[in-house]
Amino acid sequence: MTMTAPEKQPGKQPDPPADERLLRTSPWKKLLGRPELGSVVGAVAVFVFFAIFADSFLRATSLATVLYAASTLGIMAVPVALLMIGGEFDLSAGVLVTSSALISSMFSYQMTANTWVGVGVSLLVTLAIGVFNGVMLTRTKLPSFIITLGTFLMLTGMNLGFTKLISGTVSTKSISDMEGFSSAKSVFASTITIGGIDFKITIIWWLALILVATWILLRTRAGNWIFAVGGDVDAARAVGVPVNKTKIGLYMGVAFGAWISGQHLLFSYDVVQSGEGVGNELIYIVAAVIGGCLITGGYGSAVGAAIGALIFGMTSKGIVFAEWNSDWFKFFLGAMLLLATLLNAWVRKRAEAIK
φ and ψ at 134, to 5 degrees? Predict the structure, then answer.
């Protein structure tokens, strides 16, 4: 007996093929597709490691210290992660933090103005440097490595040169007795006491940046543009994505983070050393990569970069709490970078294999 295909009823159209975007995805597949998965695993491992080998690591005051260390890095790691998702780098980010602090301090001191005037001028100049990096990148078509390396060298020289020219030394003059210093310090470098534990306000800034960056990436058109230009810039331009504006905006985001970090540096210590910040740009990139950002762009998350910064904070302070030689810190950081990169690559392959 042979089976015959069911006859089509008159006027009835065949069912359309199911749209793969509407197919249900299992929680396991969603989990494997998250870019920050590897960093979460790494953070848990680091936490357990130091909880075992450092007796004081689990104290509330110690954890507050860890969060502070993570926040000072995370304030920069989050916008740097967005820039990397957009397919670019910024090697000037570390010294830009110092430049922001120097501009604020020296302008206030030389002009004998309210310190908030210096803070405002610093914001404008720092954002202008971000615009400079973005415009140079989009106009010249040179790699961001070359553009920002040039900016890094120029800022390093300007930080030292202008500081010695104006102050006569390699550090700025004290502005602690100037009007507006105490209020500015409360915004950028104050301490909040919760349950008898002191927390630095940079933790609040850090969490706010994480929320804003995550909202931009996942809930706005600009977030789609960032992923698009990082994944395939030519395809993004072909479908109408404003590539140049997106990249300039990302560099301005890094500059804004540098401004916040710079003001914290200034109002925490009152004076600024002109040579600070060199090398920190690599740590920001490491935190973003540990958090799941790809060097090639188009993949990553702000939350992952924040977790990468948290791993940095736990490692840097955990070594101290364990009373080990701090010279080993860079070794642990490099090892975590390699392990996180390998783990992230494995997770991505597994996620792609089960789609």
Answer: -65, -45
Query: Tokens 């840097």 correspond to what residue?
Result: 316
Q: What is the pLDDT of residue 27?
A: 62
List, in order, residues 6 or more apart from 35 with CB less than 8 Å away: 291, 292, 293, 299, 300, 301, 304, 344
Q: What are phi and psi of 59, to 5 degrees?
A: -70, 150
- The end-to-end CA distance of the chain, in Å, is 40
According to the model, what pLDDT value does residue 40 have? 85
pTM: 0.87
Among 278, 257, 284, CA closest to 155? 278
Q: What is the DSSP letter of 191?
A: E
- Residue in 132, 133, 153 with CA at minimum distance from that of residue 144: 133
Burial class (CB in 10 A: 0-12, 13-18, 19+), 94: buried
What's the full length of the chain, in residues?
355
- When computed from its CA atoms, the radius of gyration of the chain, rounded to whole angstroms, is 24
224 burial class (0-12, 13-18, 19+ CB within 10 angstroms)? middle
- Residues 12-52: pLDDT tens digits? 555 544 444 444 556 656 655 677 777 788 888 889 988 99
Of 143, 95, 80, 60, the residue nearest 287 (C-alpha): 80
CB-based contact 327:316 (threshold 8 Å): no
Helix, strand or coil for residue 252? helix
Task: Give the residue ranges of the chain where pLDDT is below 50.
Answer: 1-3, 5-6, 8, 16-23
Residue 184 phi/psi, 5-degree rounding, is -65, -40
Q: What is the pLDDT of residue 136?
A: 96
C-alpha 204, offset from chain centre: 15
Inter-CA distances, 17 with 10, 13, 14, 236, 316, Å: 20, 12, 9, 28, 54
85 neighbors 299 (Cβ within 8 angstroms): yes
Give the pair of three-digit tokens for residue 121: 């001028």
